[in-house]
């Protein structure tokens, strides 16, 4: 991984943490379930810079949620470890799936294809999240497994968030200016003959 990709991963990871904080500060109903948009930055990192960058951005973006739902929540140290791993899985997966997107220059195709790819990219984290709540938390905290209704509520919320973020990513991919800026950041522009 080169310095540009590492820097991009760190920036997107930091943005993911900021998005997490903003998401929880802007709760419409205090105490209610808030939408966590921290994965948005992870998706951007994986799509534009590849699987390694997506993985690192996910690990970094998972720090704030890990603290909130780990030591400050009910997950203890396990939450601080598990949440970054889950987000890292998503970054790695979207980076691998994005290889399909880079095979064409058609913005409309890319914009349409990124929606199902983004949703598919959440599957490994979704499985990991389910295992975290049903197996890991009860095992490590010596507590009863969470009620199925709570786990399914958490999973449903996560899927809704991913669908919303996939639409946002689709719009970003369609906008030529964003792709030009990010593209020239990672790829050397071709010299022009004048």
Question: How would you summarize this macromolecular structure in one to three sentences?
Answer:
With 194 residues, the protein is mainly α. It has helices at 3-25, 39-49, 51-61, 63-69, 76-101, 107-121, 123-141, 148-174, 176-186. It contains 9 helices and no strands.
Structure overview:
There is one protein chain. By secondary structure, the chain is mostly helical. It is built from nine helices and no strands. The mean pLDDT is 86.
Short key terms for the protein model shown above:
194 residues, mainly alpha, 77% helix, 0% strand
Average pLDDT value?
Answer: 86
Radius of gyration: 18 Å
Helix content: over 70%
SSE order in H/E notation?
A: HHHHHHHHH
Distance between the termini: 34 Å
| DSSP, total strands | 0
| Separate helix tally | 9
Main beta-sheet annotation: none
Gross geometry: globular
Residue stretches low in confidence (pLDDT < 50, at least 5 long) are none
Helix/sheet category: mainly alpha
Strand content: under 5%
